[in-house]
C-alpha cells in the first residue's frame, strides 16, 4: 500500500493536550500560491522558483505535529529551491537538525556545500537527507511527498558525536533498520491522533534514535568495540579542533601530536570531509563567517588572520568557494543582517532555536 494513503489525514484530528497541529496548503496560479508558500516557509527557509521560467501553477501543502521541542512534518511539494543563506545562518538562533525522508516522487538534491559521495543514489528507494540548520544549504525539491523531522541538536548529539558533520549526508532505505524507521514514521503520522502526548513524544524519540543509529553506522561510529573506539577518537579530535580554531599553529600534524594519534586512523574518520586539513579549514571558515557578522567593528583582515588565514587573497577565494559571497560583502551586510531576524520574528510562525519556528 503506497505511503500516500497514510500521510495527510482527511479531517482535522482530535489530538491529546500538548500535541500541537497545523495545516497549510496552496494551489493554483503560481504567482499567488508560490508567494503564499514563500511567506509560510520564510521563518526558516527562503523559497525560490526551481527554474528561471517558473511554473504556471504551484501546489503544495504541509501538516505539522509538534510535541515539546520535536516536530514531524508531512509535505506535499511542488518544484522549488529551499535556501538557508550564510547571512541567515550567521544571525539566527535555529540550531536544530532536520531529516528529510523523500517518500514519493523524484528525490531532492542537496546543492549547498560539498556534495557527499559516501552514499550512492538508489533511485527506486526512499532517501533520507540530514541538514544542520547551523550551516548554509540549498535543497532542490521536485514534485513529491516528504516527511521531515525537526530535531533539537542536543537530542541528536546524545547518539551522534558531531551533528555538524551530518550536514548533507544521505542514507538510503536499503537496510532493515531504515525500512523500520520509515514504517515507524509513516505509522506515527497516521496514528498520532490516538496517542497521548507522552506516547507521541516517545515515538518521536524512537525515530530519532533510529536515525542516529543509521547515520552512525554509515559513518562507522557504531556496531562493535572498534566502532566505539572510532567514535571516541572522532569526538576527541573534533573537540580539540573546536577549542583551538584561533591557534595559528593548529594543523593536522599538531592535532596528531597533541592527541598521540596515527595519521591513517584520523584520516579515515574525516574522509567524508576530505581529510582532517579540509575539516579544520571548513570549521575555520564557518567561524570566520560568524565573526564577520557578530563583530562588524573588526576588520576582515583581523578576523581572517585570527583564524590562521594569513593570505588575504587565499582567504577570499576559499570563503567565496564555500559560501558564494566575498567576506567583505558579508561584513558590509552585517548591520542589515543583524536587524533582519527581528523583522522576521514579528510574523514568524516557526520556532526560534527549535521546532517552534514552524508553529502556526
From TrEMBL:
InterPro entries: AraC_XylS_family_regulators, Homeodomain-like_sf, HTH_AraC, HTH_AraC-typ_CS. Gene3D superfamilies: Homeodomain-like (1.10.10.60). The keyword Transcription applies. It comes from Paraburkholderia phenazinium. The keyword Chloroplast does not apply. GO terms for molecular function: DNA-binding transcription factor activity; sequence-specific DNA binding. Keywords: DNA-binding, Transcription, Transcription regulation. Residues 235-333 form the HTH araC/xylS-type domain. SMART domains: HTH_ARAC (SM00342). This is AraC-type DNA-binding protein. SUPFAM superfamilies: Homeodomain-like.
Amino acid at each position: 500500500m503506497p505511503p500516500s494513503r497514510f500521510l495527510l489525514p482527511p479531517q482535522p484530528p482530535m489530538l491529546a493536550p500538548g500535541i500541537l497541529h497545523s495545516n497549510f496548503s496552496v494551489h493554483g496560479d503560481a504567482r499567488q500560491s508560490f508567494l503564499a508558500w514563500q511567506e509560510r516557509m520564510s521563518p526558516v527557509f527562503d523559497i525560490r522558483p526551481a527554474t528561471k521560467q517558473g511554473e504556471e501553477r504551484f501546489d503544495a501543502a504541509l501538516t505539522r505535529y509538534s510535541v515539546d521541542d520535536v516536530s514531524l512534518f508531512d509535505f506535499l511539494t511542488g518544484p522549488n529551491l529551499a535556501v538557508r543563506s550564510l547571512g541567515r545562518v550567521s544571525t539566527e538562533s535555529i540550531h536544530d537538525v532536520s531529516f528529510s525522508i523523500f517518500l514519493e516522487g523524484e528525490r531532492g538534491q542537496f546543492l549547498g556545500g560539498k556534495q557527499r559521495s559516501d552514499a550512492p543514489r538508489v533511485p527506486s528507494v526512499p532517501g533520507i537527507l540530514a541538514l544542520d540548520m547551523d550551516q548554509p544549504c540549498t535543497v532542490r525539491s521536485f514534485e513529491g511527498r516528504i516527511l521531515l523531522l525537526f530535531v533539537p541538536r542536543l537530542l541528536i548529539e546524545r547518539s551522534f558525536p558531531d551533528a555538524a558533520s551530518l550536514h548533507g549526508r544521505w542514507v538510503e532505505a536499503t537496510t532493515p533498520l531504515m525500512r523500520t524507521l520509515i514504517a515507524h514514521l509513516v505509522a506515527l503520522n497516521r496514528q498520532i491522533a490516538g496517542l497521548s502526548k507522552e506516547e507521541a513524544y516517545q515515538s518521536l524519540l524512537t525515530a530519532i534514535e533510529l536515525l542516529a543509529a543509521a547515520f552512525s553506522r554509515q559513518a562507522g561510529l557504531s556496531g562493535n568495540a572498534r566502532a566505539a573506539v572510532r567514535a571516541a577518537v572522532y569526538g576527541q579530535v573534533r573537540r580539540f579542533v573546536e577549542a583551538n580554531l584561533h591557534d595559528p599553529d593548529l594543523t593536522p600534524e599538531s592535532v596528531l601530536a597533541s592527541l598521540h594519534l596515527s595519521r591513517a586512523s584520523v584520516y579515515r574518520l574525516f574522509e567524508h570531509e576530505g581529510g582532517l586539513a579540509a575539516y579544520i579549514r571548513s570549521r575555520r571558515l564557518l567561524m570566520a563567517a560568524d565573526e564577520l557578522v557578530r563583530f562588524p567593528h573588526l576588520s576582515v583582515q583581523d578576523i581572517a588572520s585570527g583564524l590562521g588565514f594569513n593570505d588575504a587573497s587565499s582567504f577570499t577565494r576559499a570563503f567565496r568557494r564555500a559560501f558564494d559571497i566575498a567576506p567583505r560583502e558579508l561584513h558590509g551586510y552585517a548591520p542589515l543582517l543583524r536587524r533582519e531576524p527581528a523583522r522576521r520574528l514579528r510574523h514568524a510562525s516557526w520556532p526560534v532555536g527549535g521546532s517552534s519556528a514552524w508553529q502556526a
